[in-house]
Please model this.
Amino acid sequence: MGESARLNRRFAVALQQAMQAHQSGDLDTAERLYRGVLGMRATQPDALHYLGVLLHQRGQSEKAIELVRQSLRITPHHADAHSNLGNIYKECGRLAEAEASYRQALDLMPRHPQALGNLTVVLQAQERVDEARLSYAAWLESYPDDVRAHHHYGRFLCTHPRDLNDVEQSLEYFRTAFLLDGDNLCVLEDLGVTLYALGHSDEAAAVYRDWAARDPDDPIPRHMLAACGGAEAPPRAEDAYVRDLFDRFAGNFDEQLLKNLGYRAPQVLIEALGAAAEGEALDVLDAGCGTGLCGPLIRARARQLVGVDLSAGMLEQARLRYCYDALVESELSAYLLAHPRSCDLVVCADTLVYFGDLGHVLLLTYAALRPGGRLAFSLEALVGADYELSPSGRYRHARSYVEKTLAAAGFVQIHIAEETLRKEAGRWVDGWVVLARRAA
Model:
């Protein structure tokens, strides 16, 4: 074998090893190998493309975009690279650029499965509902057995209904998705929630009872049966329910929040804090951090940023943002109890919606704050009783209850503002953005 052939062989092996390491999640090895390939051939398009994808996973999205663009200048007809560039733009919130990239991928490969589905996602996220509806039709026509297409279209019909018939029709898409993948319990949950929202309470309860009978160890149907009135509601969601729910959603959680729910709690909470504590070096706790959506927004204020969550799957996603100093798998109350006077700021975006009775967790939060420390959290709003478990599986709280519970825990400078933080069944859900302070 000649020298040139040996070099080609060495190069091909290094690229293959880099891709295998990347696919297995060993990002350090993959990055080293990709850079080694580019050291041999600086313009190798696959190494540029996949190193770009990897850097985006590590939170270096601008560098990632430039690398994928470089690869496309060399191989402009690479549909997968256009699609992956669209994914990076989408996850950075640059939806118009994401759309353009997906359309380029589809011009090259009209039935590209990822680009077809994700184009639908960004059209929906931009509230271009009629175009999204057409895009769903194209997706389903091209891939009639795609579980994701049926499931997401069912959700689309619930969140953007032209009339009640659309919501009724969503049930058939959920049922088809479940027939195609009987292990997809997220579909079963959506089916139950939609049945309840349509007033089919008995059918919803039957879905959860059947689910619980088939899997008696699963906490999700037990909780949802209570949420739709088929059993007594607990004072807070049990740990197993929260952990299992978010472990199952972790992989596509951000996409669902972007596409279906118009989720904006992290941004609204950080905006509500305003200039408070800017410039200070704070020890910040992201309580119930999930996939880390608050992390990049609060990082600039933090000397140390710790994320705590029950879900290992969510923490894996948060780790990919590379903005936390520590990520801890723990139930929130237990973590707070073990860390008295450790925080200057606790941020809690849509975590306390899984607590009905807030008394204990707010006492523990007060104890975990240093004197003068701040608390910022969001809730879903309720008019009437102190709190109730809603059909979504989350708790809603009355303003007066929140005020008196914070005061009883010792908090001062309590400020509660009405906000819309997410959508449910196509309608904005009223919520509270709550700020409070531990006395100095």
Remarks:
- The chain is about 55% helix and 15% strand.
